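Risk mitigation, structural track. In case the binding assays with FO1 fail to produce interpretable data, a predicted complex structure has been prepared as a fallback.
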Amino acid sequence: MEPKTNLADLNVVAFAGGVGGAKLALGLQEVLGHGNLSVVVNTADDFEHWGLTICPDIDTVLYNLAGVNNMEQGWGRADETFTAMETMSHIGGEDWFTLGDKDLALHLRRTEWIRQNIRLTEVTDRLRRSLGIPSNILPMSDSPVRTLVHTEDGDLPFQHYFVRCRCEPVVIDLSFVGAPEARPTVEIQEAVAQADLLIFCPSNPFLSIDPILHVHGMRQMLRQAKAPIVAVSPIVGGEAIKGPAAKLMTELGKAVSAITVIDHFEDLLDGFVLDQTDAELQEGITIPVAVTNTLMKSIEIKQELATTVLDFAHTLPKATRVSQSTRWNNETITEIG
Ligand code: FO1
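Fallback model:
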């Protein structure tokens, strides 16, 4: 089949964590036809706080795609007030994790539905529709997965490491509790099966994309997918665009380089998008590479990057990965069960 010539007609599945992933997802949403984008979102940063289910990456994607996000922080809502937070602090409640009043209303609604045993996928879709978002936002699984950060100061649940301890403890390893029991949802399986291309957003490879890939059956499903997979580098000029990726990579004994990201996903990638700062790295890369500005400082740049990624990725040869991955991993590809 010939590649689609109109980029807006492509069916795309993007895999994302929080802020960096949400920025590219917005660029893709602006460029693609309504309903042609599905965003599979990391839920291993989720936790229970004030008795509520908090899904930070889902909410960052929701708020960015709805255009109601706090532009400076990247997470949380614009035009927030913090009356509940101040009151909670005053009465001795936990106040290390900032919840705005509007954000809190969403958590109350989500938790109400979760307690009625409504799947997180359905809950997220209700929130998406209420915010008028045209793209599908798909939690990586309906069952809970939680990142546990093994540090020199002991094991920390992800938000305790990230927010409460400001990523200061030295990381030894990560585990994704619940991932072996979790499965990709039917919605994700259908979106991947129908996709023309799959994109790993410039999210943290170890903290945001890895938890998604650890959901039982996810990695095998992606290896078998007919659509090419392209990753956009979250590392630019030896630094993370945002967040603790560079510190984490160093602590895990890895070079802070886009090459480390390629090596990490080597059994999955058909192409890679490098920032122009790192143009000289392309000589050492054996898969197809596009070089462009990946620093999404405005909506125009988000759209330009999205267009470049789609243009580059949709003509890449498909399914070379399957033969490569069986060679590299010598592992039987099984049905998701
Ligand atoms: N990040 C912070 O650094 N401090 C916070 O107090 C904080 C609150 C918060 C509330 C809701 C939400 O959706 C996200 C929030 N984040 C906060 C961001 C979040 O911890 C991280 O961005 C992600 O988990 C990492 O992708």
